[in-house]
Amino acid sequence: MALYLAQLQDELANVRPRVRDRVVGEIARRIRDARKDGEPVDEILAEVGDPLDIAADVRERHGVLERSRWREIAAIVLLPFGGVVIPVAGWFVGVYFLWASPVWTRLEKVMATLVLPFGALIPLLLVSRDPLYALLLVLPLATGVRLTVSVARAESP
Question: What's the pTM value of the predicted model, to 2 decimals?
Answer without folding.
Answer: 0.49
